[in-house]
Amino acid sequence: MNASPLRITLVDESDLAAAGLRTILEPYADRVALVDNREALAAPEAIDVVLYEPVGQTSMSRALLRDLQAMSRAQAAVFSWAGPEAVSSATPNPHLPKTLSAAQIVRSVERLAAGRFEPITTPAPQVEVVAPAASTPERRTTEDDGGLTAREREIVGHIVSGLSNREIGDALSLSINSVKTYIRSAYRKMGVERRTQAVLWGLSRGLGSDPTPALVG
Q1: Any residues with CB less than 8 A from the CB of 88 and at least 6 apart, and which?
Q2: Listing from the earlier edge strand, what are the strands of the sheet with 49-52?
Q3: SS3 27
Q4: Are 203 and 159 in contact (CB under 8 A)?
């Protein structure tokens, strides 16, 4: 019989960070389960690992972190965009950079829970941003882009930046039906169904600039 997945919770002021982590961990549901803070506080003894972002903490998030650490035996670890040199003086806990891939995060969490954590020094693969030539607008980019064409990738970038379908069409001189066709094709390749999922997918690959309007809209 398979062991139950490790239960982890994330203390982070950014709702987007929690949503993004939940999304990228979905394929590993048999190994890890992300529990929201309320559920973690209700059953702290069932939590295996507490991840937290030390940058931008509020008094509420600091109190939440203290309570979770005091009420559970879970291993705490930093989960941050900031490098270990920027937060090591403030915390002695292990450090997991947010640049890790989903597989690397899962492996790190499993090592934490087993008490044999080792930092992963190999960064997650970075997306190579290739500017499409004017004569080949449909050229494919890297495998990390899910096989998107340059035009599809451009449209996903606009989605991440918060543009509506109509605004994307205006920006690229495309009809609204053409935009929708590109979006359907891109979603199929990305393996997503909703706009919020597309935003998270694009953010993980460095597309777009400001995701807030897209999430709100």
Answers
A1: 95
A2: 32-35, 6-11, 49-52, 75-80, 95-97
A3: helix
A4: no
Residues 46-103: pLDDT tens digits? 999 999 998 888 888 889 888 988 888 888 888 988 777 666 555 678 888 888 888 9
Beta-strand ranges (E) seen in the chain are 6-11, 32-35, 49-52, 75-80, 95-97
What is the C-alpha to C-alpha distance for residues 204 and 124, in angstroms, rounded to an integer? 11
Whole-angstrom Cα distance, residue 160 to residue 158? 5
Instruction: Tell the residue number behind the tokens 């979006």, with chain if given.
Output: 183
Coil vs helix vs strand at 52: strand
CB atoms near residue 164 (< 10 Å): 16
Please state the pTM of the whole predicted model.
0.53
Helix or strand (DSSP H, E) at 106: helix 102-113
Question: How far is residue 106's CA from residue 100's CA, in Å, rounded to a whole number?
Answer: 10
Residue 185 CA to residue 201 CA, distance in Å, equals 15
**Cα–Cα distance measured from residue 108 to residue 121, given in angstroms and rounded to the nearest whole number:** 11
Measured CA to CA, the distance from residue 97 to residue 106 in angstroms comes to 13
Cα–Cα distance measured from residue 25 to residue 158, given in angstroms and rounded to the nearest whole number: 25
